[in-house]
Amino acid sequence: MRLNQKSVSPCLFGPVPSRRLGLSLGIDLILPKTCSFDCVYCECGKTTEKTLERKVFVPTEKFIEEFEDYLQKDYLKNTPDFFTFSGVGEPTLALNLGEVIQIIVPKKLNTKLALITNSSLFFDKALRQEILLVDLVMPSLDSVLEESFQKINRPEKRVNVEKIIQGLIDFRKEYHGKISLEVFIIPEINTSKKELDLFKEALLQINPDEIQLNSLDRPGTESNVEKASLALLEQIKNYWNLKNTTIVSQYQYRLQKNETLNQDELKNRILSYLTRRPASFNDLKESFGNPDFLMSLLKEMMESKEIKTILMERGFFYVLSDFS
Ligand code: SF4
User: Fold this and answer.
1) Which of 53, 117, 272, 301 keeps 20 to 30 A from 156, CA to CA?
2) In angstroms, what CA-CA distances link 301 with 216, 273, 320?
3) DSSP label of 60
4) Ligand 1 within 6 A of CB of 138
5) Dihedral through CA 280, CA 282, CA 287, CA 291, nearest 10?
6) In whole angstroms, what is the distance from residue 208 CA to residue 211 CA?
7) Rounded to whole angstroms, how far apart are CA atoms 133 and 115?
8) How far, in Å, is the centroid of ligand 1 from the Cα of 139?
């Protein structure tokens, strides 16, 4: 996947439609692809910088400049439901995450704050304190057994699953916002009876407001990752029999208000979107509207070899041409 894109692209991206958040403006304070994990299902390609060390990747001044510009020019035209800390890597590795939250919250905007995280740094009390003002935290926990954790998430060597679970339990006690915990199911890897039983125990202790069962939807890093069937997800949901468990099965899109983009602007938005994740035509249409114009531009971008398509179970997905 193209990794030099971020150095020229802004730290804000979108707004993009999100399955879990409606319309979301992404805030990416990380350089690609820096993460404490290298998940087999990652949509952003292989981790090139596997680390547990927090540091400033995007200076706060750079964020302020882009954010103020965005608020002045675009915010009211197409107000997102969420500002979401996410992107090409693990957002909590950004040492200035708390500082950026402290800049956004006092503005009292009509948009909530969300954080998508792999939970690997939740053992760190200072980090947990930094994110207390976020409205919605979406941590992931894909396994509770070290063996499957290593297989799925391929973490930095100091991370272990026990530490993650304890971090999530501690965070729940300290945080009063909403926790929507995602569990990514991979058949035969994290679906044994032993794992599901221990998972239930851990989930009861963590006590999230919501549990979201998810499975492969877009091309992941490893092509042999199997998608869980809806029947399997239903089975797990029933087996756990825990309140507020849902299956992420379809996008909850909210159409954007009309926005006029010229060809270059649209092309840049598409490239920025595809830098972060593959997209079907519908994904792009929901995000950018104007299907005829979009289709002709995508054709042009295919011809000039800036992008290509790959076939997945859910159909064809557009990716950057160097996506592998
Ligand atoms: S899915 Fe998230 S946690 Fe896993 S490698 Fe990708 S960015 Fe990191």
Assistant:
1) 272
2) 26, 14, 10
3) H
4) no
5) 120
6) 7
7) 10
8) 11
Pocket test for ligand 1, best of 34, 47, 86 (most atoms within 8 A of CB): 47
Per-residue pLDDT of the chain (324 residues; tens, 9 = 90+): 333 333 334 699 888 777 678 889 999 999 889 999 999 999 888 999 999 999 999 999 999 999 999 999 999 988 999 999 998 899 999 999 999 999 999 999 999 999 999 999 999 999 999 999 999 999 999 999 999 999 999 999 999 999 999 999 999 999 999 999 999 999 999 999 999 999 999 999 999 999 999 988 766 667 778 889 889 999 999 999 998 999 875 433 333 434 456 777 788 888 878 877 788 888 888 777 777 788 888 998 998 899 999 887 667 889 998 877
- Same domain for 164 and 289? no
Domain assignment of residue 302, given as a range = 276-324
Domain assignment of residue 270, yes or no: no
Same domain, 254 and 297: no
Ligand 1 atom 1: residue of nearest CA: 42
Report CA(178)–ligand 1 centroid distance (Å).
21
Total domains present in the chain:
2
Q: Is the CB of 130 under 6 A from ligand 1?
A: no
Report how far ligand 1's centroid is from the alpha carbon of 159 (Å): 14
Ligand 1 pocket, residue 122 CB under 6 Å:
no
ipTM of the complex: 0.99
Do 210 and 323 reside in the same domain of the chain? no
